[in-house]
Amino acid sequence: MNLTKGIQKSLGPGILLAGAAIGGSHLVFSTQAGALYGFALFGLILLINLLKYPFLLVGTRFTASTGKSLLEGFKERNSYYLPLFLIVSLITGTITIAAVSSVSGALLQNFPLFSSFHHINLAIAILVISGWILILGKYKALDRISKFLVALLTLLTFFAVGSLLLKGSINQALNISWIKPNDSPWKFSNLGFLIPLMGWMPCPLELCVWPSLWMFSRSKDSEYVPNVKEAEFDFNLGYIITVITAVFFLTLGAITMYEVGDGMLSGIQGSFAKKLIILYTKSIGDWSKWIIIPASFAAMFSTTITCLDAYPRSISAIQGLLKGTDLGHLDSKVERNRFQNWMIVHIFVSIIALLIAKSYLLTFKQFLFAATSGSFLTAPLFAWMAMDTINSNLVPVQNRYGSFLTTLSWIGLFFLIIFSFLYIANSFFGIGIS
Fold first, then answer.
1. Which of 2, 7, 119, 149 is a plausible cystine mate for 302, CB 3.0–4.6 Å?
2. Would residue 409 count as lying in a domain?
3. What is the count of structural domains for the chain?
């Protein structure tokens, strides 16, 4: 089979990763970064995408090289890796699913048909519908829907940015300082924003496992097992899309909301979506809401449905591996039933979290920042596990990381560790708070 045909049959897990990534980190934090600091955080966004790249690539390369999931690699490499991954996934999974579905519900309110519904009720409906789609349609439905949504949101955000530039806003964009905005982000006291931005940019590091698991389902669907080059083409395509859309949303935030978008994350979940749409349409034109609303909802719905699939898929696979009953590839009916049961558990617990949020015990900022901060603080752990596994004797020598990716991995690991300590010092000990 020629390379083009092989790539076509392999395309899927990397796009799904893009669908999971282009959500909170892009729509919420990239937009907020532009609104607060113009283009000053452009370099940081590119840097964190670069530094996370080798860790997120691990799952794809490991599975393409060995025929095993990265979770199997964790188990074989170190007996502590799998239990640690399970604990963190159990804690972060439902919080993340609840957080992204709440934003989806808030955005859905902007469609006239759903404007009278409470955004939390819409979020619960989105969760239930997503679960129904995944249980009935399985991986094939997830693959098709995610590809459509990623393509849609990329085209729509590109069109929105293009419309702004054609309108003449490029002159305004050039007047926004790249280095010295009116309020500098490079303050210790701003770690409360920078850490969540980096935590979900482009996505949490535990997502390195997800493409690895999706590759088995994709192979069953396409009846083709990709080689390393084909699998990594798929991953890199998805990753490039996440970087480009992050820049798009930063640009939209900088041009339309700079110095007027402060406080976007204050209040309850529904207020954020309303502020977002109002600020976008005020700058671009009222007609643009039919671009911004579908693009924003597509971004968050793709994140919701992929997270609802991937967290239960990961936990189900870990359960099978720890018990020694199966490998978590969903080859048997027992594995598929267990996966569905974990999905139902995640839906149920996420609904409880949403109902707590509805009672206003948690503000939108608290709800979202809890998930993103947790992702960043656990990132050094997952970074080490991924780096240690890909360069172990489990992987053929020719497929281990070379000098460039190894060096980049070490730089990324030290970066994550240093900023985690700074965040802890700032948040728990008050260091740097003015």
1. 149
2. no
3. 1
